[in-house]
């Protein structure tokens, strides 16, 4: 062993020392590694399913250059997902949970918290959709909020991977959709199941699949790809329509609904016209 140490210029004690520090580093980074693994697995699973669907029934042709560019930007998105989750988690732990505890002393709120779990889950999902609709509406009517949403609308070719392309500020704002799950005492494991399903749903509504007859029936309740594509039109008026996140109820109630069948998809262009160069400000969302 001595000869090996001399030949390579290090000692076994240095190896042990380096190994200890590496183990410590892995231990410290372990929570963040898990935070990255979860969204990566969701992206891979969604991609396999939706890419097969898009390949079999494409709405439009997507050039490879667009896909390669999106893959290069994917690490930025993953960092934004983890960073926004950490910021929201800190606020939730130090401010939201204490407020939720105080609310249990209110009789009406106490009754809600002791209602059946299935009812609280439904209320949490409906509240999430209402919150998402509200800030989405604000993003298209207020220039300050629009800055956080602009990058998402700069995409002139739509397919599943575009669904998660949002600025850092937009991702942080979106985390507040889930406040109802916290306030209504939904168990964390059920919340994570919903987040996983919702993540896939987000990719699905941005997917490049042909418009199907069954979609018009689903749209009485849920958003579909063709429903959401109306919103991604380069027509500024249509960008303020079909703002629904999960359900189509809010669009119908508040007058922002447009029937996709009234549009000729072959004539529609996506993105922002005239085209603008992507800036760091757009990516951050300020």
What does this structure look like?
The chain is mainly alpha-helical and 286 residues long. The chain is built from 13 helices and no strands. It has helices at 2-8, 12-56, 64-103, 107-113, 117-139, 143-153, 168-175, 179-183, 188-205, 215-218, 225-231, 249-254, 280-284. Helix 2 crosses helix 3 (64-103), helix 2 (12-56) crosses helix 9 (188-205) and helix 3 (64-103) packs parallel to helix 7 (168-175). It is globular, with a radius of gyration of 23 Å. The N and C termini lie far apart (58 Å). Residues 1-13 have low confidence and may be disordered.
Q: What are the SSEs and their pairings?
A:
Elements (H helix, E strand, L loop, with lengths): L1 H7 L3 H45 L7 H40 L3 H7 L3 H23 L3 H11 L14 H8 L3 H5 L4 H18 L9 H4 L6 H7 L17 H6 L25 H5 L2
pLDDT < 50 stretches: 1-13
Main beta sheet strand tally, sense and closure: none
Arithmetic mean pLDDT = 84
Discrete helix count: 13
Structural class: mainly alpha
Succession of helices and strands: HHHHHHHHHHHHH
Shape: globular
Span between termini: 58 Å
The percentage of residues in β strands lies in under 5%
Question: Considering DSSP H and I runs of 4 or more, what fraction of the residues is helical?
Answer: 55-70%
Rg computed from alpha carbons, rounded to a whole number of angstroms: 23 Å
Number of strands: 0
């Amino acid at each position: 062993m001595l000869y090996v140490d001399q030949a390579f210029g290090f000692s076994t004690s240095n190896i042990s020392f380096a190994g200890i520090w590496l183990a410590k580093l892995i231990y410290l980074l372990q929570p963040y590694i898990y935070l990255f693994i979860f969204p990566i697995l969701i992206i891979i699973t969604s991609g396999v399913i939706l890419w097969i669907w898009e390949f079999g029934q494409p709405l439009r042709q997507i050039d490879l250059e667009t896909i390669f560019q999106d893959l290069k930007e994917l690490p930025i998105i993953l960092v934004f997902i983890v960073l926004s989750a950490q910021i929201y988690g800190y606020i939730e732990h130090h401010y939201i949970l204490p407020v939720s505890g105080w609310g249990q002393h209110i009789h009406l709120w106490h009754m809600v918290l002791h209602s059946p779990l299935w009812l609280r889950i439904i209320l949490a999902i409906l509240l999430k959709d209402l919150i998402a609709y509200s800030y989405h509406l604000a993003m298209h009517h207020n220039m300050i909020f629009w800055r956080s949403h602009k990058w998402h609308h700069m995409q002139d070719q739509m397919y599943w991977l575009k669904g998660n392309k949002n600025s850092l500020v937009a991702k942080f704002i979106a985390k507040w959709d889930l406040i109802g799950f916290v306030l209504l005492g939904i168990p964390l494991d059920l919340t994570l199941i919903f987040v996983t399903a919702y993540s896939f749903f987000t990719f699905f509504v941005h997917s490049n699949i042909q418009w199907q007859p069954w979609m018009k029936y689903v749209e009485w309740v849920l958003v579909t790809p063709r429903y959401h594509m109306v919103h991604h039109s380069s027509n500024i008026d249509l960008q303020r329509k079909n703002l629904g996140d999960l359900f189509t109820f809010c669009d119908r109630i508040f007058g922002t609904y447009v029937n996709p069948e009234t549009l000729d998809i072959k004539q529609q262009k996506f993105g922002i016209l005239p085209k603008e160069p992507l800036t760091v400000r757009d990516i951050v969302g300020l």
